[in-house]
Amino acid sequence: GQQVMQIPQYQHVQEGEDFTTYCNSSTTLSNIQWYKQRPGGHPVFLIQLVKSGEVKKQKRLTFQFGEAKKNSSLHITATQTTDVGTYFCAGPRSNDYKLSFGAGTTVTVRA
Amino acid sequence: NAGVMQNPRHLVRRRGQEARLRCSPMKGHSHVYWYRQLPEEGLKFMVYLQKENIIDESGMPKERFSAEFPKEGPSILRIQQVVRGDSAAYFCASSPRDRRSGNTGELFFGEGSRLTVL
User: Fold this and answer.
1) Which of A33, A41, A106 is the closest to B106 by Cβ?
2) How far are the Cα atoms of A29, A65, A77, A108 from residue A23, in angstroms, in the given order?
3) What mean pLDDT comes out for the span A58-78?
């Protein structure tokens, strides 16, 4: 079955630094979604990418969808304490609807 | 506009008891998904329901687990004869669209029900 993998599993970042987390699928995705879950909270939708090679920005967050539509990345610049949480990517297989979630990248920030 | 409502937020059961988790989707949403999350793990799909229909229950264990979404009232995830391995956070999510058509927009998640089995 489809597998969505994220690396790294944990990201410890100094406040103000940049980092990138990666998402890879074993199958082609019709789209990729990113969610953020704060500690003790619930997943909240961040963004959806649909087109091959698409890049979208939300303030300090940059999301990219790979050309082959099998991988994606999230880059955060000038990390802040509000960025703490677990970032999940999720994608359905082509012509499918079940979202398969990666295991997430858990981000902690050192002030 | 209320979001996805789940209750109870926390539930403690002893082995062998039953757990019932309820989910009211966002207003206007008729598609409900249940996901299970173990500590420090991702979200595992369990079941996809529309009103009065189970569309896909491929992620739900065949025994002890059942789900429904009646015409009136919330969706219910029922776990019979709970075991310690059932301890997890159970998230419900809703969507306004029939995702089988390929309109895979965002899912709106509830705050989850955290089940602890003693």
Assistant:
1) A33
2) 12, 9, 18, 18
3) 97
